[in-house]
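I'd like us to work through together how a protein chain folds, taking it slowly. To get us started, please write out a protein record for me. Label the sequence line and the structure token line clearly, so we can match residues to local backbone shapes. Once you have written the record down, we can walk along the chain together.
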Amino acid sequence: MKTMNCKQLGGACDKAFHADSFDEIAEMSKQHGMEMLQKNDEAHLKAMNDMRELMQKPDAMTEWFESKRKEFEALPES
């Protein structure tokens, strides 16, 4: 199991996510983002807008996603 936090995944806080795969951790991060969106959390809304801008450039988004996957893979097991 590996751990990444919200900020490491493009978010705005230190909430930790624990998972065995990057896909699992990405899904947890997405769910957390949805919760923060519903709460109108200002810091998370800004982070989401930054990600939306990145998504406008498919190559940049793919590169960002792969860099996060590599970062996850390089983490020690916890």
User: Anything to note?
Assistant: Residues 2-74 form one domain.
